[in-house]
Amino acid sequence: MANSRSALKRVRKTERQTLRNKTLKSRVKTYRKRVVAAIESGDAKSAQEALKELTSAADKASRSRVIHPNSASRLKSLYMQRIAALG
């Protein structure tokens, strides 16, 4: 248990930040699954729309350092290549 006022505040702050980070990571994972599902179905149009959402979520997560910026770039690049291969 935290003993000082500042330590108590850090505990509260960490809880808020953990929740925010978890939300952002979860959003990236959700949109990633949507992109994969669209690619597997072979629908380039819906895959492109899902990629737009994934790109936005990945950029927001990397801006707040929830995921590494290089990870976000790799993620976007991978799915852009796969969608381009669809046709």
Q: Can you describe what's shown?
A:
This protein is mostly helical and 87 residues long. It has a domain at 44-87. Helices cover 86% and strands 0% of the residues. It has helices at 5-41, 44-63, 69-86. α2 (44-63) runs antiparallel to α3. The model has no long low-confidence stretch (mean pLDDT 96).
A few lines on this structure:
The protein has 87 residues and is mostly helical. The chain is built from 3 helices and no strands.
Name the structural class.
mainly alpha
Number of strands: 0
User: What is the residue-averaged pLDDT?
Assistant: 96
Helix count equals: 3
- Percent of residues in helices comes to over 70%
Q: Globular, elongated, flat, extended or rod-shaped: what is the shape?
A: elongated
Gyration radius, rounded: 17 Å
pLDDT < 50 runs, ≥5 residues = none
Major beta sheet, specifics? none
Order of helices and strands: HHH
- Approximately how much beta-strand content do the residues carry? under 5%
**Kindly, what is the distance between the CA atoms of the first and last residues, rounded to a whole number of angstroms?**
58 Å
Main features:
87 residues
